[in-house]
Amino acid sequence: MDLNLQKKLIENPKLYNHLKQNSNWIKILNRNPNAFKDFETAMKEMYKERATDKMDEILDNIDLITTFLNAMK
Fold first, then answer.
1. Which of 15, 20, 34, 44 would bridge 49 by S-S if both were Cys, CB 3.0 to 4.6 A apart?
2. Confidence (pTM)
3. Helix (H, G, I), strand (E, B) or coil at 23
């Protein structure tokens, strides 16, 4: 595996954990280091770090607060 790629994996614990949990990516990244972007996208989906996931969480929190306030009336 490319040394720069190894350094990126070691520096980011979430990437490293995702690699340990999905070991098939080791073979993919060894053969094609350009697939790192796909690997990173898969990690963000797993840990729900995409922008859409964050917006959904914010909307859910707002909905919870409004429901609570309506129940208090």
1. 44
2. 0.75
3. coil
